[in-house]
Amino acid sequence: MLVIHNVSKTYNNKTKACDRINLTIEPGDIYGFIGHNGAGKTTLLKSIAGIINFDEGDIQIFGYSIQDDPLNAKRQFAYIPDNPDIYETLTGIQYLDFIADVFDIPLDRRSDAIDRYATMFEIKDVLSNPISSYSHGMKQKIVIMSALIHQPKALLLDEPFVGLDPKASYLLKEVFKDMVSKGSLIFFSTHVLEVAEKLCNKVAIIKNGKIVANGLTEDVIKDESLEQIFMELLNES
Amino acid sequence: MMFRRLLSVFSKENFGFSRILGFDPKKQKGKAIGISIAILYGLVAFLGSFGYMFFDLGEVLNSIGALDILLVYAFIYTTVLSIMFVLFRANGYLFHYRDYQILQPLPIPSRTIIGAKLVVMLTFIYVSLFLFLSPIAFSYFYHGGFDVLTFIIFLLSAFAIPIIPLVIFSFISLLVSRLTAKMRHTNIISVVLLFIVFLGIMYLSFSLNFSGNANPLLNQQDFMDHIRGIYPPIGWFVGAVSNHSIIDLLLLLLSNAAILILFVLAIQKMIVSTNQRGLSKVTRKIAKVAVAKRRTLIQSIAVKEARTFVNTPIYIFNIGFGPIIMVILGVASIFFADTIQTYFAAEFGLNIGMELIILILIGFSLSMVYSTAVSLSLEGKNFWILKSLPIPAKTVLYGKMLFNVYLGLPAAFIATLLFSYSIPLSFITTLMILVFVTSLSLMVTVFGSIINLFVPKFDFRNPVEVVKQSAGAFLVLFGSWIILVLDGFLFYQVTKTLSNEVGILLMSLLNLILFSIMVIFIEKKAETLFMKFEV
Description:
- The complex is a heterodimer.
- Chain A is of the alpha/beta class.
- In chain A, 38% of the residues lie in helices and 27% in strands.
- Chain A contains nine helices and ten strands.
- In chain A, strands 6-7-8-3-9-10 form a six-stranded mixed beta sheet, sandwiched between helices. Chain A has a four-stranded antiparallel beta sheet with strand order 2-1-4-5.
- In chain A, helix 3 runs parallel beside helix 5.
- The longest helix of chain A is centred in the C-terminal third of the chain and has 16 residues, at 166-181.
- The two termini of chain A are 33 Å apart.
- Chain B is mainly α.
- The two termini of chain B are 35 Å apart.
- Chain B is globular and about 65 Å long.
- Chain B has helices at residues 2-15, 17-21, 29-63, 68-95, 100-103, 110-144, 148-158, 163-181, 186-207, 221-230, 232-243, 246-279, 297-310, 313-319, 321-336, 340-348, 354-367, 372-378, 383-388, 393-422, 427-454, 463-467, 471-494, 500-532.
- Chain B has two domains: 2-278, no CATH class; 297-532, no CATH class.
- Chain A binds chain B through residues 46, 49-53, 70-75, 79, 81, 85-87, 89-94, 96-107, 110-111, 114, 118, 124-130, 133-135, 138, and chain B through 281-286, 288-297, 299-301, 304, 307-308, 310-312, 381-382, 384-385, 387-392, 531-532, 534-535.
């Protein structure tokens, strides 16, 4: 379970990017995180992933606090950023090996996983190429593979569908479904409301650092569409 | 108008304090003051040592009525400096600039963009050029007498020095990148070519006509005279400054201005095409099957570091210089064993034993192997990877340290053994030197890591900004030299009463004590400092 409790984060003592955020994401959830640009989505995701520190509150990932026990907390999840900035001097396989070494994945298991996902995302032929020669979409696929290779209990993604071709998007959604069926949880931010509406069993909407709606998708949208709800919440003063 | 606007944006991008230091000095005043003091110390040390050599040279040249030769030195040294800068930076400033996709769609003439880019690049060159020129100028004006007119002509003429190197070596840099672009090991080939150029210049300038002079610069006099004969701008520069020759001044300034204008006109279209070519990525499918390989975490980090190293030319060139020079010196000792001591005494004015010569040479070369002082910074925009993975900060640092030791220590061992064979040295002396170089390598390595923890620079556009121009690189280099001086002081005191071997052993002990203190610091503080980084 991912528990975000009263988390606040302020930049330069002025801008409150996250304001006492409370969310609980349970195993089996595909949780969509929606908000306007600058609402605080990336800040919250980076806080969960331990990339940035937050000022107040706590984040527990399967019982481990990201602030008090960061290493154990980080062993539970994989994070995929909105921009796939990865080591361009490595080849695809070298990067995947590096991540697998971090999680101490046995050679046979990692080879199987690399083979399976590389075939699925159609990048098997370029794994020996330097990442610097990859397109944005290919880098995104390598980052996704590196996240899946250690079978995390939680997957945190920031705008995961940006840059992916339709087939890869479809495959990623299938991977999400497969993972949650095995007890993992998925928490991702998105601007594509249709995706959130169709894919997520739960959603949260963030506005100016505050959660303004969250819960089961059908409860949040009721008889309307997520887009209508989102626009109504956005226009509320 | 547009040119000024562009220049203002580029200046903010390149010369802001935050960009240079890697942090906002307004927010971290203590750190800014500390780094400013260290930079000041470095400048004083540089100007003092470099200045002393030229002051001494000026005195000798003045006594034989040949002070003008100092101007030839000024011209050639700054030309070499410009060549090095252009070789590394022309590609990033002109032919493959990062903001091409932002600037090209804007309604700005290419000529304006190129002009502004060139001005920024030249500003960098001029800053380092005038830094190098200042001790030479001081010596020239001190010995020759100061007058305002000569000074103004000197300044004006100096602006012309880097133009021809800029033009020629920009094309060479482009040519090298074109020739090697389709090769598998592009970066290594580029670095080898750069090393050949650099070592060639070093060989020519320091070995020609060695005549046992106390000041090494005197050995270069014939070389300087020779170059002056085949490169007319040097003659114009000397004529303009020393004889106030208007014709020479005009020839120098106008010819260089014309060359610069022609250069801008010539590269206008070329720059658009090279930048366009840089945008297209062709991902070739390699038949080679990708095979996974398992390593321990520390090994994995060290291997990752090694791969970054071999794929970053400036990294290899700067930090790989130490190991290469050590091996070259070791090999050279086989052929010049008889003259090393005499040569060393002449070069540095020190009449010391061979053990100490070897220690100084290897010590200074090892202090240049400081990858740990920049490797954390070089993570740059990839830092999120380390931050989000379950890797303890100290493991990251130890992995990077392992690579640094792999890089420097084997070369130091090879050099020591070659020296030991060619001099020859006794078994026990050789053993003690090996212990010393090991302790020094470990100490410099950990010292670099600590420096990088305190002064990281994650925001950079070109690795040169981190490897060559960052506070971390600067501090580790000068900090290591201070430790070497401490070692030397200890050796000097101990060997008054005890043998050289004991002196070397005690220096090693000092290094190991410093190493242990720093390791304890990393064990205790690395995680906290690491967690504070927000990229």
